[in-house]
Write a structure and sequence with these properties.
Layout: H1 7-20, H2 28-46, H3 58-61, H4 65-83, H5 85-102, H6 106-114, H7 121-128, H8 133-139, H9 150-156
Helix pairs in contact: 1-2, 2-5, 4-9, 5-6
Length: about 160
Amino acid sequence: MLRLVNLTSVFLLTTSAFAQELPNNTSDEVISAMAKYGERVEICNTKKNRIIGKIDNSWFNSLPVELKKAAILKVGQSALEQCSEKEEYDVVLALYDQAKKSGDIEALSAFIELHRTWHSPEMQQDLDKLEGEDFQQFSASEIFNTPFDILGTVKALGLIEQ
């Protein structure tokens, strides 16, 4: 069975831990970018209360349950990532500039590593099956433009027991 994790909670914990471990010589640009990023993630997180209770898409409705779960996970993660994409980019750019000046890439590498998405091998196999034009059209649907409650949506669609 697909396990859905509150990715935002994990993200906030890792970002907070990352921010607390910044060296004393961290540039003001990095600190400012991290603060703006944290604020934006909090805003994105407040939008996650939305549950999608019905999806009218013939391609999605034709999928087996496990692939439906994977599709919801993938579009949900994408919506959350897109919500804070600019601010995340600004953090990476500030960390890159700092690394260029100092020669120390540890903070940049750590930030990038913390923000990598990881899935179990089984989940990755399901996600890999979701490529192609049908999925692109599905994911471009307006209902997926903003973050939503992934687990709540999966439950509302009857894809897991409540």
